[in-house]
Amino acid sequence: MINVLVADDELPAVEELAFLLGKDDRIGAIHRASSGAEALRALAAEDVDAVFLDIHMPALSGLDIARAISRSARPPAVVFVTADEDCALEAFELAAVDYLLKPVRAERLAKSIGRISELLKDGAPAPEMITVDLGGTTKMIRREDVTYVQAQGDYARLHTADASYLIRVPLADLEQQWADAGFLRIHRSYLIALSHVGHMKLAAARPSVTVAGAELPISRRHLPSVREKLEATRIRPQA
């Protein structure tokens, strides 16, 4: 069970979120706070696994609270709940698990609780979050949700199951930065997430790989490294 704290200076917002949380079987105790100071007192007194913080609270904001608890030995997972879309970058820098926009929808909250549950299992590390822009809106996505990346000049387009996002980072830079996270270059235009690969055609006249339903070409230049990576992951009998 996940014990949570809801902090918002507007009492109706606290009660509404607490009500939605209470309908989820994964949630245990629900503590409430109507100010930043009260939230810190509750965190000191109670065993809290996750905290849902409104960003704009007087005196101590949600960002202030997140900074304070990040220095603790066992900080709870942080989810920001706000009507303001402009603080996503700061939330990302504070390693927030999620960023919910008001009014909070039950199905979106359920996804957030799922992320918290994953985080708490076996002390798993927090998912790597990426700040992206979509139609003038800043949002955060998890790197593990990226299925493949497509080069577009000095930009790169991140593809997920639901959408795609253009970021101003060259594909070559992402290739280096994400190599340890299971991403593999297969073409001058494509970087794939191995965890999302369906199947590969390496012996065909035109080698390709299917990633999340998209068939992508493997270039001759990158085919040896793809073969090597595939061979390294092959299960072999013990000698």
UniProtKB/TrEMBL annotation:
Instruction: Please give the residue positions where the record annotates the modification 4-aspartylphosphate.
Output: 54
What's one GO MF term for it? DNA binding
Protein source organism = Arthrobacter humicola
Q: Which domain of life is it from?
A: Bacteria
Which keywords accompany this UniProt record? DNA-binding, Phosphoprotein
| Record Pfam families | LytTR, Response_reg
Domain named Response regulatory: residues: 3-117
Signal peptide residues on this chain, from the entry's feature table = none
Residue ranges annotated for the HTH LytTR-type domain, each copy included: 130-232
Q: Which SMART domains match?
A: LytTR, REC
Q: What is this protein called?
A: LytTR family DNA-binding domain-containing protein
InterPro entries for this protein:
CheY-like_superfamily, LytR-like, LytTR_DNA-bd_dom, Sig_transdc_resp-reg_receiver
